[in-house]
Design brief:
The chain is of the alpha/beta class. It is globular.
């Protein structure tokens, strides 16, 4: 059993069991996480070709590879929001999957991506002419203070150690650099209505669930300031929340 990444204690209550994994909630800070997460090859094997084709037990419900136009359009909308913050610089999309956001962002920025899925990287290379670095983000080989922006769209909840991912992001970003995160809305109406069948509880691909309060703690510990920004899309009725943070100048 793993400890809560916020309080570092094992003071939790069981919420549910699903697909052989236990989901618990920390009594100290409300952080919800999988207590027996997959590791190593067991984790990377989740993100197979079938995961993206919609035929795996967890993952996309449709074949994302055949929906390129829709995914690129969605990515373009995200890029336009990003352009409200800055007009030039280096952008890294962490958990880039098949590379749609990297492709869209490359029209305006020097954009790169990284992901643990070789299948996704192969698709990006063949169909979008986008090179995705394959591996764990904490091992990403870039220089300190070299990026203006890092995006983590639906990525942080997939990681074994979210706090290490955020510390890595802080290392790579320039002072005042921007971090954009999207996460399943654990406190949203869909979760309360659907209960254990809520699509956010796609376990074991989703391992951590944050609300704004405990996410802010993890961000602060990693060297970020969570912004109260008008472009955030935090809404009780939505399945996904967006958070904007900047790297603190130390």
């Amino acid at each position: 059993m793993v400890s809560c990444i916020i309080c570092h204690k094992q003071n939790s209550k069981k919420l549910l069991n699903k697909n052989g994994y236990g989901l618990v909630k920390c009594k100290n800070d409300g952080h919800i996480y999988v207590e027996n997460p997959p590791v190593g090859k067991q984790l990377t094997d989740i993100y197979s070709l079938e995961y993206f084709e919609g035929s795996a037990a967890v993952g996309y419900r449709h074949n994302v590879f055949t929906a390129s136009a829709k995914q690129l359009s969605r990515s373009e909308r995200r890029v336009q929001k990003l352009k409200r913050f800055f007009q030039s610089g280096r952008v890294l999309d962490v958990g880039s999957g098949p590379g749609f956001f990297v492709k869209a962002a490359s029209r305006y920025f020097e954009a790169n991506g990284c992901d643990i899925s070789q299948a996704a990287a192969d698709f990006a290379k063949k169909n979008l002419q986008v090179d995705i670095w394959v591996g764990d983000f904490v091992d990403y080989p870039d220089a300190k203070n070299s990026l203006e922006c890092i995006t983590m769209f639906s990525q942080l909840e997939h990681t074994i150690h979210p706090e290490e991912n955020l510390k890595k992001a802080a290392k790579l970003l320039v002072p005042e650099g921007l971090l954009i995160i999207s996460l399943p809305n654990i406190n949203g109406l869909p979760r309360y209505v659907q209960g254990r069948f809520w699509r956010g509880f796609s376990i074991p691909e989703h391992l951590h669930f944050f609300n704004r309060k405990n996410l802010e703690i993890v961000l602060n510990n990693a060297g970020f300031l969570l912004l109260k920004h008008k472009y955030s899309e935090n809404n009780f009725f939505r399945d996904t929340n967006y958070f904007y943070a900047k790297k603190l100048s130390l």
